[in-house]
Design goal:
Radius of gyration: 14 Å
Number of domains: 1
CATH architecture: Beta Barrel
Shape: globular
Order of helices and strands: EHEEEEEE
Oligomer: single chain
Number of helices: 1
Structural class: mainly beta
Length: 118
Amino acid sequence: MVNTIMRDPAWNEGRHPCTMRIHPGDTEELGITDGEEVLVDTEAGSARIETEVTNSSYRGQVVILHGFGLVHDGEIYGANVNRLAPAKHRDRLAATPLHRYIPCRVRKGSFAETILKG
């Protein structure tokens, strides 16, 4: 299976496989540093995720890879983008969730209060 790399987080030791890529200009504005955990809020829910400051992301846009959000021994590894995609934001024919171009808000916050909806 393709996703077996995320079955045991120890296999990713020393790497950061699930980050939110964000432009340096946006992190300056938000007061966020590389490697810091932030909250990403959409109309569907919220997730906490580690930031990766990079010029490969456009200003005003964040990139979160699909295929993470593993729960292993009661701990969550990465963010499950399905929880951030509103149910109404789907492909017309296949009805699969569209994970692109979802409006979101990135913020520092109290992670103890993070609630995942949906």
